[in-house]
Specification:
The protein has helices at residues 2-6, 10-41. It contains 2 helices and no strands.
């Protein structure tokens, strides 16, 4: 298990990190937009 973890391809790691970063960006933008719309409503 650990050996497979260390022999993982770099492209797989890059793809995974890109996926995580994109997910964080989406979550951040979504929460910011919802907060802004909530503030403008009230």
């Amino acid at each position: 298990m650990c050996q497979k973890l260390f022999t993982t391809d770099y492209t797989d790691f890059h793809r995974l990190s890109t996926l995580i970063i994109n997910g964080l960006k989406f979550t951040l933008c979504y929460s910011v937009s919802s907060v802004v719309s909530f503030n403008t409503l009230s």
